[in-house]
Amino acid sequence: MTISSNTDLRPNDFADGLRAIAPLVVAAFPIALVFGALAAQKGLSPFETMLMSSVVFAGGSQFVAVDFWADPVPWVAITISALLVNIRHVLMSASLGTKTHQMGFGKQLIAFGFLADEIWALSEHRARKQDASFAFMMGLAMPFYINWVVMTGVGSSLGTLLANLDPAKWGFDFAFPAIFIGLIMGFWQGQKTGIILAASGLAAIACKALVPGAWYIAAGAAAGVLVAAILTDPEAVEG
């Protein structure tokens, strides 16, 4: 049986994406609920919370925005902080760009519009073995996106009930770190990976201690990219 070289036509790709993202959809439940509750405490209605989730769709920057939320709203501070938090999306899109050219530019724009850390990581893993098709990325994105929008709305609706909830008591405060540790370990390639992670972590910690705001995210990303470039064998890249 001959399989078409156009991976966008393979019907099982979407199902593969659904299966791959399912555990992370479950893991995102508590994070979405906590965000919704925090948004409610800042005065956002369930509709406004879901609207933010549907338009922004970036948990990190949404938490930053809610943390800054006040009356009047400091739009400049929120915008700059959100851009700093989300600057990693430029790098994620760049890394996937050369691996998904078979989609065509239009489908890339759509797929990358739904990028989240989890979706990027699973797409990268897929691309290392075979083409990460548009159908596969949509299989990742759709349930993750719908879950985030709906569950942040639920969290906002239950805001008064969750107002006194201590995330640490139930381990919800570790949900974000646990997801990212799992994603990082999926890319582990030995000592080189450890050095890159150490450089990124140290740069982020130092920047957070010395510079106010969310600049530590950009600092960590820049340090990781720089060290990775230094450690990369040019001959291996050319080959």
TrEMBL record:
Pfam families (UniProt xref): AzlC
Membrane topology: Multi-pass membrane protein
InterPro entries, alphabetized: Brnchd-chn_aa_trnsp_permease
Cellular compartments annotated: Cell membrane
Keyword Cell membrane: yes
UniProt keywords, alphabetically: Cell membrane, Membrane, Transmembrane, Transmembrane helix, Transport
Transmembrane domains' residue ranges: 20-39, 51-69, 75-97, 132-150, 170-188, 209-231
Family that this chain belongs to: Belongs to the AzlC family.
Protein's name in the database: Branched-chain amino acid ABC transporter permease
